[in-house]
């Protein structure tokens, strides 16, 4: 079984990812793979290698936000120059793996699993301030705002403490 | 023990001072950024990001343990890796930023906010809005995250490169969502300022 890779530098990485997956005793997310590789490999590279692994059927997508586990035998990685790179399979959910077109690479978040409930109706989700509360806070200094939050937090803690006391009584 | 606002402030200063004395780069993030720039809310913790630049993780644990804190971790979660410092009725999360170009740029953008006769190192409001959008749409879907992004955009609008935000959001495939939030905030600003 051979792995066709997109770029020569990916060959080495593919072997490292395979080793990480083989050594794991539970399915791993891309995020975990990234960390087990010491943060040295770009998320996009991990993603493209996993795409190839998926096409080869040597990893299984375990769900849970993109966790994968190794199911295949040891494979040989082969230079892209040996054979043309095959067209990508049309996997369900592939839209999630589209690569960003521009901007800085965020190795931390690019491959995080999407939240399960992205609610897009902002008018429904957001609490809009009244004109009074907006004016009240907009013209305060950062220090005044932060001190107010500390007072609120302390008050909330006192309420919790009171409830605990009542529950004990 | 009853939590007092002054005690929270003292704890925050103490933690920041310990990091500064050890030359560990750090900035404040989480609810406290919203609390500095927008309508405040309650919070159960301080969130502080540190950039270790090759320093071992255990040095963070040792630093706080040597100064009397109970330390848990490093714990892994949706948003990364952190140590948790136990405080009375409160906690502080010390987030470990990987030494990547992206994280270094966040440290480069961090701002200093006057507070209590000193300057607090704080995540830039524009970076905060972007992070909160990513957390909401790409990581965990907690409405607090969206609310925090909206509040900071609303109140710190002039301090943020609003026009550049959608392009930055594109990297996370949430450009449309960022544009929708900007448009919503723009409308609300007109209404509230009117």
Uncertain runs of chain A with pLDDT below 50, 5 residues or more? 1-8, 74-118
Number of β-strand runs of chain A: 4
Q: Shape of chain B from CA axes?
A: globular
Low-confidence stretches of chain B: none
Work out the helicity level of chain B.
40-55%
- What is the helix tally of chain A? 6
Distance between the termini of chain A: 70 Å
The most extensive interface between chains reads: A-B, 56 and 61 residues
Helix and strand sequence of chain A: EHHHEEEHHH
Number of strands of chain B: 7
Which strands sit side by side, in order, in the main sheet of chain A? Answer: 1-4
Q: Determine the strand fraction of chain B and express it as a percent band.
A: 15-25%
The value of Rg of chain B in angstroms is 17 Å
The helix/strand series of chain B, from N terminus to C terminus, equals HEHEHEEEHEEHHHH
Distance between the termini of chain B: 46 Å
Helix fraction bin of chain A: 40-55%
Radius of gyration of chain A: 24 Å
Plain-language structure description:
The complex is a heterodimer of chains A (about 170) and B (about 190). Chain A has about 170 residues and is mostly helical. Helices cover about 45% and strands about 5% of the residues of chain A. Chain A has 6 helices and 4 strands, in the order βαααβββααα. In chain A, helix 1 crosses helix 3. The model of chain A is unreliable at about 1-10 and about 75-120 (pLDDT under 50). The mean pLDDT of chain B is about 90. Chain B contains 8 helices and 7 strands; from the N terminus they run αβαβαβββαββαααα. In chain B, the strands form 2 sheets. In chain B, strands 1-2-5-4-3 form a 5-stranded mixed β-sheet, with helices on both faces. The termini of chain B are far apart. In chain B, a hairpin with a 2-residue loop joins strand 3 and strand 4 (about 80-85). In chain B, about 40% of the residues are buried. Chains A and B meet through helix 4, helix 5 and helix 6 of A and helix 1, helix 2, helix 4, strand 6 and helix 5 of B.
